[in-house]
Amino acid sequence: MKANTKSITLIAALAIFILSMAMKPKPKKVIFFGDSITQMGVWKNGYIDVLKKSLDTTKFELIGAGIGGNKVYDLYLRMEDDVLNKKPNLVFIYVGINDVWHKLGAKTGTDYDKYLKFYQALINKIQANGSKVVLCTPTVIGEKKNNVNEVDADLNKYAEGVRGLAAKNNLPLCDLRKAFVDYENANNTEDKEKGILTTDRVHLNDVGNKLVADTMLPFVKTP
């Protein structure tokens, strides 16, 4: 009889444990979808790594989905495997640097109209998959102030296009371009072309990664 009682107690405890695990909320899955800046974001002190250190990892699962050299249409082509199949709660779209930068030299950048069309297509597919979306403006290609870097005019145009898409689709905007420009104006006293937020005019140093993480954090935390 005692053995039966112990067995029943054990089974009941096991059932309660399984039920409690089933009822435990899953962590919010966040995917950062982008290029080499995002690829490097998972490295030590990268912006995704910094975000992880700022959050309760039992409540948030952060996934980097960045590939070096990618442009907006590359993201569209790999969206199924790298985003949709993972069923994220939230997706940050952070792309545009290569679309502008690669217009120089190899001339393989993305025309403005095509950039916006592919960006809108990303939004449509990701939302249809049941995920929330945050749009990010591209950051810098050169850190000099007052719009004197070679492609500042294009970067400003493409960033403004992303702002327009955010307004059109009623989506949150993580305005990294503005955050970087404001930081340069306040801190780049010697008007250097690199070394303030980037290592090479484009890819982020520790300060740049922290700025991106700090700018993104409120959007990650928003229910």
TrEMBL record:
Protein name as annotated: G-D-S-L family lipolytic protein
Stored Pfam families: Lipase_GDSL_2
SUPFAM superfamilies: SGNH hydrolase (SSF52266)
All residue ranges annotated as the SGNH hydrolase-type esterase domain in the record: 32-211
Lineage top rank: taxon: Bacteria
Single annotated GO MF: phosphatidylcholine lysophospholipase activity
